[in-house]
Specification:
It is a single chain. With about 600 residues, the chain is an alpha+beta fold. The chain folds into five domains: about 170 residues, P-loop containing nucleotide triphosphate hydrolases (Rossmann fold), CATH 3.40.50; about 80 residues, Elongation Factor Tu (Ef-tu), domain 3, CATH 2.40.30; about 70 residues, Elongation Factor G (Translational Gtpase), domain 3 (Alpha-Beta Plaits); about 90 residues, Alpha-Beta Plaits, CATH 3.30.70.240; about 110 residues, Alpha-Beta Plaits (2-Layer Sandwich), CATH 3.30.70. About 25% of the residues lie in helices and about 35% in strands. The strands form six sheets. The chain has an eight-stranded antiparallel β-sheet, covered by helices on one side. A six-stranded mixed β-sheet has the order 2-3-1-4-5-6, sandwiched between helices. Strand 2 and strand 3 form a beta hairpin. Helix 7 crosses helix 8. The protein is globular.
């Protein structure tokens, strides 16, 4: 037990976590040199392509007579839940900071998560081989954050392998070994899971008490489900079977279960025969921030979409979903995400891993509605909003926002945040002297953040600023439902919840977009944006007209007028008889989403 060390790497996005993990695997001989490739622990094709870590990935290494269990974690704010789950399974964390970029917003957020778990923190400066690396300045920022001594900060280059051995030595020396609870009844924490077509649900676990072995009868304490262990083992980084997995170890357990909902991340596994009385403390329930309707392009794909979403939920426990029906788009799901990148990755995984093509409705946040009869609602979709007469007041989610930037760009960023209804709190400086960097603290409505705020922030700061945000509270908001009418019929898939003072601008954008993308019909189509019964923006799409006068030759002009009048009456009659319904193509929905 004294030879085991469990640790993870935490950092901001693109600070070199996966590259440093590659060097660890090489140095410890876990991977043969001929099988080595860059970003080895980023197993998803999407991760390799984008150069970002999306999923946590455990791996067991042997080094200087010690067993080192490493968990590589993501760095983007949308995947913070993956980080928090990793931290609950280990005793120590390497805080990795890019020496050329300095401390970033997500560095601080992940550090606070690790401190909450009482982990041993080992600060490491990476990329010291780069010509623009500023070790002295970045060290000062870390000392400001941690209150450590300069001699405690290690320096390395994940790319060249410089000083990587010193980091593993520091892990052995500083990270405490797990507690020896071998005689207690078995308890293991599920920190991740995935589905295998042949073996059912596979759970990634940290054994806290006792031991688990093949053919044990096990009990999932949260769902009260009983199963038999088909296989146990460790990740190196592929799955390798072991006869037994003991307390203090990180590994996997094959459950054989095909019921995906019975194995939950954060649940405790115990032995059915000698079961523990108390489950392990799980994880805080994650709160989705952004909601969007996800519908299959082809109605026949609904059951395939349900199965795909169930499977993705296993490996992405921050995903929330519930069934939804739309008159225009049919059956689908209302899905909750931690941010726009999370939504984008989800859509891309559905397409790549399951071959599904989907339509996503306009993303929105969850609003608190207080009705005049005292009832409270949480509204995630514009269709769920009650009548205006029934609403007493509405509240929207606000976030605490931390933006780290060189002081040259503070003015630009303050202007951007002011445009997005943000409230300034204070400014804190991480370093002094030339090129000093500041942390701007703000409070902002989430609706301002979920559209293109991150892109705009990178633009106004020439790419130097970084962003982190956390939920703060709900505050009163003046929100209305903006309906889109086509040929006098409301198209519910295009309805959105908007601030009252932005309604005209957004309504005008949507009707212009639809005018450009809708196909012409035999009659004039009215395209309108309305709040309640009041139209605030409108456009007309002219009719596709047949030339009824083409057969005429010579004669009086009244013959021509007579035919045109007859055509005009026919078009009016077509509208009156209800034949003026418009089929909206998928391209039109996509055009509105892009706007």
């Amino acid at each position: 037990m004294s030879d085991i060390r469990n640790f993870c790497i935490i950092a901001h996005i693109d600070h070199g976590k996966s590259t440093l993990a590659d060097r660890f695997l090489e140095l410890t001989g876990t991977i043969e040199k001929r099988n080595m490739k860059s970003q080895l622990l980023d197993t998803m094709e999407l991760e390799q392509e984008r150069g970002i870590t999306i999923k946590l990935q455990p791996v067991k290494m042997k080094y200087k007579n010690h067993i080192l269990n490493l968990i590589d974690t993501p760095g983007h704010v949308d995947f913070t839940y993956e980080v928090s789950r990793s931290l609950a399974a280990v005793e120590g964390a390497i805080l990795l900071v890019d020496a050329s970029q300095g401390v970033q917003a997500q560095t601080i957020a992940n550090l606070y998560l690790a401190i909450e778990q009482n982990l041993t923190i080992i600060p490491v400066l990476n990329k010291i081989d780069l010509p623009n690396a500023d070790v002295e300045k970045t060290s000062a920022e870390i000392i400001h954050l941690l209150g450590c001594d300069e001699k405690d900060i290690l320096t390395c280059s994940g790319k060249t392998g410089l000083n990587v051995e010193q980091i593993l030595d520091a892990v052995i020396a500083q990270v405490p070994a797990p507690e020896n609870n071998a005689i207690k009844p078995a308890r293991a924490l599920i920190f991740d899971s995935f589905y295998d077509d042949y073996q059912g649900v596979v759970a990634a676990i940290r054994v806290v008490d006792g031991e688990l072995k093949k053919e044990d009868k096990i009990l999932f304490m949260g769902t009260a489900k009983v199963a038999e262990t088909l296989e146990v083992g460790h990740f190196s980084p592929n799955r390798i079977e072991d006869p037994i997995i003991e307390n203090g170890q990180i590994g996997y357990l094959v459950t054989g279960l095909k019921e995906l909902g019975k194995v939950r991340v954060g649940d405790t596994i115990t032995s059915q025969k000698n079961s523990a009385t108390d489950p392990l403390p799980g994880y805080k329930e994650v709160k989705p921030m952004v909601f969007a309707g996800i519908f299959p392009q082809e109605g026949d794909d609904y059951s395939a979409l349900r199965e795909a979403t169930d499977r993705l939920k296993l490996s992405d426990s921050a995903l929330f979903y519930e069934p939804e029906h739309s008159q225009a788009l049919g059956f689908g799901f209302r899905c909750g995400f931690l941010g726009m990148l999370h939504l984008e990755i989800f859509q891309e995984r559905l397409r790549r891993e399951f071959g599904l093509h989907i339509i996503a409705t306009v993303p929105s946040v969850a609003y608190h509605i207080f009705k005049t009869n005292g009832e409270e609602l949480i509204v995630k979709s514009p269709q769920d909003l009650p009548d205006v007469q029934q609403i007493d007041n509405t509240e929207e989610p606000w976030m605490t926002v931390d933006i780290i930037t060189p002081d040259d760009y503070i003015g630009n960023i303050m202007s951007l945040v002011a445009d997005r209804k943000g409230n300034y709190t204070n400014t804190e400086y991480l370093s002094s002297g030339a090129g000093k960097r500041a942390v701007l603290h703000y409070e902002m409505p989430l609706a301002s953040l979920i559209t293109d705020f991150y892109d705009k922030l990178k633009t106004v700061s020439s790419g130097y600023a970084s962003l982190n945000y956390e939920f703060k509270d709900y505050r009163r908001a003046d929100v209305v439902k903006l309906d889109i009418l086509i040929a006098d019929e409301i198209v519910e898939a295009l309805s959105t919840l908007v601030w009252t003072d932005d309604a005209f601008k957004i309504g005008k954008k949507i009707v212009n977009s639809l005018k450009d993308t809708l196909p012409k019909q035999q009659f004039v189509i009215k395209i309108q944006a309305a709040i309640g019964g009041k139209v605030i923006a409108a456009e007309r799409l002219s009719a596709l007209r047949k030339d009824v006068t083409a057969k005429l030759y010579g004669g009086d002009v009244t013959r021509k007028r007579k035919l045109l009048e007859k055509q005009k009456k026919g078009k009016k009659k077509m509208l009156a008889m209800g034949k003026g319904k418009v089929e909206i193509p998928t391209e039109a929905y996509l055009a509105v989403l892009k706007r």
